[in-house]
Specification:
mainly alpha, 10 helices, globular
Length: 211
């Protein structure tokens, strides 16, 4: 049954999204400061990239995989820089101003989506994880490879989105219990963590290529 491929995709999407890396920290921080919709839209940006990576892996687009492998150093370097900039931006942001801007309707959700989309797509290692995951569970049918691949991609997007809905809803439940001082500290901690991820990524990529 073709639905099996969709269900397998959901499992892969969930497993790929659950580890709380920098994207998870960003989504949590935005949910606490700007509300559930901001966190959800940010998560949707990450889920969209997961679907793109699943598309590349499921259709076996080797020319894209080769390009990513060849340019991996520069892609990861840019990703590390984006993380550092985003981390510093969060560190120095005033949560009171963020909440006020959100209440006045000046918060642009498209910026939340695009920033996390770019952050997630700048991690090319993920596409190879999808290649390994999809190959291990035999997700492409010989009889109808295109249909099964599309169902897998839809499942990956749905599974990733499901995770972000669960996480953001859980965080939003406790959002009103936080006071301004606590939100201030959360911004500082989140900023340091995200910038730290970026510094580590840059050191790791230089070590890998120049050791």
């Amino acid at each position: 049954m073709e639905i099996v491929f969709f269900l397998k995709g959901i499992v892969v999407g969930l497993l790929g999204s659950i580890p709380l890396g920098p994207v998870g920290v960003v989504c949590i921080q935005r949910t606490l400061n700007k509300g559930r919709m901001s966190g959800f839209i940010s998560g949707m940006g990450a889920a969209s990239v997961d679907a793109i990576f699943a598309l590349i892996a499921a259709l076996g687009l080797t020319f894209i995989l080769n390009f990513i492998e060849q340019q991996r150093f520069y892609i990861q370097l840019v990703g590390g820089i984006i993380l550092i900039i985003m981390g510093l931006n969060i560190f120095y942001k005033n949560p009171v101003k963020q909440m006020r801007r959100h209440k006045q309707g000046k918060s642009k959700l498209i910026n939340d989506f695009v920033s996390v989309f770019l952050l997630t797509i700048s991690n090319p290692v993920a596409v190879f994880l999808f290649v390994a995951a999809l190959a291990s569970i035999n997700v492409v049918s010989v009889e109808s490879p295109i249909i099964s691949a599309l169902l897998v991609i839809a499942g990956v997007f749905g599974g990733a989105l499901l995770w972000w809905v669960i996480l953001i809803s859980f965080v939003d439940l406790f959002r009103k219990k936080f006071r301004l001082k606590q939100l201030w500290w959360i911004n500082k901690i989140a900023g340091v963590l995200i910038a730290g991820f970026g510094i580590f990524a840059i050191f790791a990529i230089f070590y890998m290529y120049f050791k």
